[in-house]
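Much of what follows relies on a compact textual record of a protein's fold. A record is reproduced here so that you can trace the correspondence yourselves:
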Amino acid sequence: MHLVGLEALAKSRGGMEALLGHQLTLKFYFLASYPKSNSKSPLVILTVHRVDILCSIAMESKPRFVELVDHVIPPSFDLQSLEPISPLAERYETQLYSLTGMQELSHETIEIYCILRHLIAKEERNGPSLKPRTTEGGTFEWLRGYPDPLVHRLIALAQYQLPQSPNQNNAVIYKLFGNAGLAHIAMLTRNGPPWAYVPKLISSRVRTMSTRIRTCPEETNCLRPLQEVYPEMLLWIIMMGGLGSIGTEEQEWFSELLAELCFATDIVGTAELAMFLKEFLWSDFYLDHSFKEFWDAVAVARDVEADLGTKQARSPLDKVWEVD
């Protein structure tokens, strides 16, 4: 059903819950239970939500069912349960505000970051396998770990309209982070065909945004100013873009840029990269065999950087960047 019509229908019935309670609607869905909830949530809500999110990302439009869906599916954690903000997060929030002048957006970005960090740590604790999962019935389980409000907030961040100002080049970091967060969730938790294109689409957008902020035409690395201020965040963003770019023309650009950033930070190999990003955002899932093609490309590009630079690689790059 067309989303505009579905939105109008839901509102005319008094919301999604009222629509689902209608006798005609009851014939077309079965019930699925969710943790920390004594009630049953209709699977059709998930279907509507998935389509809404996919359309929102693909068309860069606002989700239509934020209010209609968020209150139906309970979040899987309480914001109050998050660990205290780390010194790194405090420093980033201060720097974001200082360089962009956007206090509310700076706070929103860091709160989203804290949620992502909490959920990644939760996934790491829950078991050795971080591959995308489905239930026996084929129902996606991603909502159990990544609640709707987080996805909606990431979309809002990725789609934020930056005001025309001298700080616009610095402020693009918000949109880059929002897109990288969506790429992480899509790669980590979706394994259905409709989601296969999402990381590739996001990677293309990250590259486009990155190349548009070139303030010094003679600079080969247009992200150098951001790298100096947000080294961990920028590395993670470019890594997310690269992992999502496999099989596209964007892959070479991301692998070369990540190699350049790692060379500038004196990072050699995935083990050192993991240590560098551990206090920011890191998951061993990033080294899954499905991403081997990208890491192989980074190894080649990093070797070129070492040959062109003033220092040599400290270990055979085909080994330290190797993914099982």
